Amino acid sequence: MEPAATSIRFRVLCWLGLAAGLSYLCRNAVGVAESTIRLDLGLSLEQSGWFMGAFFWTYAAFQIPSGWFAQYCGTRFSLACFAFLWSLATLGISFGYGFWTLCGAQMLMGVVQAGIFPAACNSIGHWMPLSSRSFACGLLAAGMQVGAIVASTFTGPLLLAFGWRSAFALFALPGIIWAIIFAIRFRNHPHESTAVNPAELALIRSTPPARPTADKSSAITVSATPRNDWAIFLTSTMWLLCGQQVFRSAGYMFFASWFPTFLQQTRGVSIAQSGFQQGMVLAGSLLGAIVGGMVTDWVWRRTKNLRISRSGVGATALATCSLLIGSAWFVADARFAVGLIAAGAFFAALAGPCAFAATIDIGGSKVPQVFGMMNMCGNVAAAVCPVAVARIVKQTGNWDLILLLFAAVYLCGAACWVMTNTSRQSVASSPTTSDDRDHS
To answer: What is the pLDDT of residue 226?
Structure first.
């Protein structure tokens, strides 16, 4: 009797999920502390918007370069470097004494965090079989939300107890510790780890055969013919994936930046309460990321149809999110409104694993660059979002109008998914076996 497969791949997911959580802890604390920092340093509302959005300009610009760096140097080396440097950038926020120094720290953090998810998705492609990749992507996305929830829950009390400078100094420490341990223990590929037995290695490299279907374009394509993976950047599928990421990222950025201030202005909640209620919305995102990965994999296993399991799930989730957030516009009670928005955030996050898995489906040997391209477009929208919200509120004086705006944004994301068909660009070759020039 052959020994059972080991489970080292799940330890790898824990490492990657923890990296995601720590990165979001640092970046999301800014949203809760925004009003405190703005008043302390005498910033205008628009300057505060630029400060919160500064991270995303460099984060977007360095997605593809950092994805290439992560692929060339390997996840083990690159993620350890990224974590150490983003921790220093977080420490830099605590020493900020004006608009430009705060923006500089945020921009540095954007540069070094840009490669986290291209590297993580590439490692998921190496370590997880096709039948489990969406769930793995969901756990990665859940790690982000755990970090965001911790930031929302604890930033407010830390501000009141120690001040915003000490709070950011504390948030810088975990990333440094993680980077050191990760560099020692992590391995880029399953075959590099002596703890992975042959049964687990075979499981990771397995690709189940496609179920016969009348719609040949919807089944995973099996071909041994080499192809030019760079051509994927010119396809409509690539740009539609970028489009849905633009709309999802813009929507998420509102909840990660202005949402506590929105609650303070429209529902009369305190700073501490607004952080807690932001945490409720982010908890919806956390649950949605996990359920989204499970649902996407379940649909794939039942249908062996990539379009249904990616585009179908993504479109349904974002359309439902749009309906729920639009409904919150009619609700004056803070708790009820936040409940509707949290449910909307759940469905928005449910579409996240679909997008992550789609980049692995179509990326071939260029998964970090494909993910980087998609995430770059999304984070340009995230960078614009805080400034756009500030200007809309300044011109209209109406914070509630923002809910209708983001209901429309998520509906546009659903439309992008309806037109997306990742199965047309899918190949049988897994990133696990691709020639990715991993030199680490």
So the answer is: 40
